[in-house]
Amino acid sequence: MDRVYNFSAGPSMLPLEVLETAASEMTNYKGSGMSVMEMSHRSKEFDGIIKDAENLLRELMSIPENYKVLFLQGGASTQFAMVPLNLFRNSKKADFIITGSWAEKAAQEAARYGTANILASSKADVFSYIPKVDKSKYSPDADYFYITTNNTIYGTRYTTLPETGNVPLVGDMSSNILSQVYDVSKFGLIFAGAQKNIGPAGVTVAIIRDDLIGHAMDITPTMLNYKTHAENDSLYNTPPTFAIYIAKLTFEWVKKLGGVAAIQKMNEEKAALLYDYIDNSSLFKNPVAKEDRSLMNITFVTGSEELDKKFIAEAKQQGLVALGGHRSVGGMRASIYNAMPIEGVQKLVNLMKKFEMENK
Ligand SMILES: *Cc1c(COP(=O)(O)O)cnc(C)c1O
């Protein structure tokens, strides 16, 4: 079988170029005589890889000097505990906006160590929109304010960030990091599991402002303390070396394409192609509030479970795979991360048009 257009929400498509470079270096990385998988994390070669990865990400996201970039393990889900363990220091209270099950899990985890104050939730409407919350409702004494910038399962995203003043904004950016330009200085902490827009599962990137490091609760395990990793340049213990190497190759690829602003433009074009068609379709509907639509995960339904199934099966036959919606919501979801070429989206739209004609 040829390579397919893979619409999986994660782990997801990687740029072919990245995979080919990794393949060509697989058994002998730059004359070292070994694979990156086989080399010491303390070796000169790996030191070059992790430093390049950090510097490239700093450049791509214009990360200010007073932020640390950490390569961690445990996935985004471990951050749900790490954030409160490290950031609860005064009121031990955080404000949450619940825009999906990831934010819900983060709030549940925070509630084990302090108070998770739910400002708003769109759960009653299947998380089909981002709640607008008046600033007067924010807790001025919160230790942090938590959002999920892009909601992978439901297909929504924040288009404007909450203005939280002195309260550090924490963003789970797992499914849209590097997809659009963000002002990192608006956040106290950003984290992202790699397997959507960065690389393979196994590494989680955290971007954290210096002043938020070093105040972890006493009960915090050493490995869950940002300070441990910040003081050791992410080499306190063996990091996920191969995943960091692939992340570095992806960062190089993003840079070669013109950086995040250029990628954002491509992502907007790809998403518009799909949304414009859906908006004019009499069969397919996008169940999300228009102003909150995600650029990365586009959900759609026919209204008939049977037709949904039929569409997913036909798409698979055409080499358009993993279009089933999350198991909790059903329907379809096209995850069109950075690595999805516009040709894949065009092919999907063409198939949807054909399917609509045939199933009126
Ligand atoms: C995928 C995802 C997660 C979970 O990531 P893991 O690495 O599996 O823990 C959390 N948040 C968001 C927004 C995600 O897309």
The overall number of domains is 2
Q: Major sheet: order of its strands?
A: 2-10-9-8-5-3-4
CATH hierarchy class name of the largest domain: Alpha Beta
Report on the biggest sheet: 7 strands, mixed
- Named CATH topology of the largest domain: Aspartate Aminotransferase, domain 2
Question: What number is the mean pLDDT?
Answer: 98
Distance between the termini: 32 Å
Q: Helix and strand succession?
A: EHHEHEHEEEEEEEHHHEHEEH
State the total count of DSSP E strands: 13
Going by helix content, strand content and strand pairing, the class is alpha/beta
Write out the CATH superfamily name of the largest domain. Answer: Type I PLP-dependent aspartate aminotransferase-like (Major domain)
Query: What's the tally of helices?
Result: 9
Choose one word for the global shape. globular
- The Cα radius of gyration reads 21 Å
Question: Approximately what portion of the residues adopt beta-strand conformation?
Answer: 15-25%
Low-confidence stretches: none
Bound small-molecule species:
pyridoxal-5'-phosphate
**What is the CATH architecture term of the largest domain?**
3-Layer(aba) Sandwich
Q: Classify the helix fraction into a percent range.
A: 25-40%
